[in-house]
Amino acid sequence: MCMVWMTIALAGYFFSALVAILDKYLLSGPIQAPAKYAFFVSLFSLFTLFFIPFGFEFVTWKVIGLLLISGILLLYGLVAFYYAVKQREVSRIAPLVGTVISLTAFVAVFLPGVFLGESISFIHIFALVSLISGGLLISFDLPLRSQEHIPIVSVILAGMAMGLSLLLLKLGYAQANFVSGLVWSRVGMFLAGCSLLLIPVFRQQIVLGWNYRGMPSRATVYTGGVFVANKILGGIASMLIVYATFLGPVSFVQALSGMQYVFLLALAIPLSVRFPHIF
Question: Which domain, by its residues, includes 231?
Fold first, then answer.
């Protein structure tokens, strides 16, 4: 069973690396506003409603609340993540955000009865610390350069929101099946996306953020196609990681996110030759 959730998680993180690469490309030109990008991500999350005939069950209001909050936190975390990616290279930001997510899940392991109550041995702690440390070190050039600017506030907000989202999702899965948890959490993402319209700055970005004025129609179609393909890949990645979380311990599933950054660097290196202004 260990190899099953581990393999599923690694596949999910590979697709997540592809998504991060395309996110950086879209945020660097075709779609300028992070809030606009996150809003359309929330709209695409409704495609999970098609899974309702395949095992969806009604659960208690308490569980529904946990799953909705999980989706809401995930969407807000994505907004912060997109702001950070827009400012710095995705190969640096993604590992840092993943490290904060892993630390959030790691701390929760020591709160039995509050979140997970997983039993952790010394060798487990050593493995977790090693994976988390690797995700942190991969984000920086050594020695550190004083002029290197990292949007640390956005990174921390994104990581904590996504980490809490995973923990609440795992807690909800203790009382709901996979399909029910997936559907309710994605409904939460949609609600969070709609709530962005209540904030004037975000509403302006969402309404005016496409910046298609003067773009040829072929470029518009191309951008839309890249966005749709990216969200399909994102949906696959999300489902795989959520399913791995359903099967295995959330702290280890998240700690494996370090492999996402190995995949990310492998993809970014050749792209940096072709698109040095983006990667």
Answer: 2-138+148-271
Number of domains in the chain: 1
More confident call, 69 vs 106? 69
DSSP string, 67-132: HHHHHHHHHHHHHHHHHHHHHS-HHHHHHHHHHHHHHHHHHHHT-TTTS------HHHHHHHHHHH
- CA dihedral sign, ordered 199, 84, 246, 108: negative
Please name the residues in contact with 171: beta carbons below 8 A apart, sequence gap of 6 or more: 66, 115, 116
Measured between alpha carbons, how far is 17 from 204 in angstroms, rounded to an integer? 30
Tens-digit pLDDT profile for residues 9-65: 889 888 888 888 887 777 776 566 788 888 888 888 888 888 888 888 888 888 899
User: Do the domain assignments include residue 260?
Assistant: yes
Q: Token digits for 216?
A: 């040829």
Residue type, 276: P
- Rg of the chain over CA atoms, in angstroms? 18
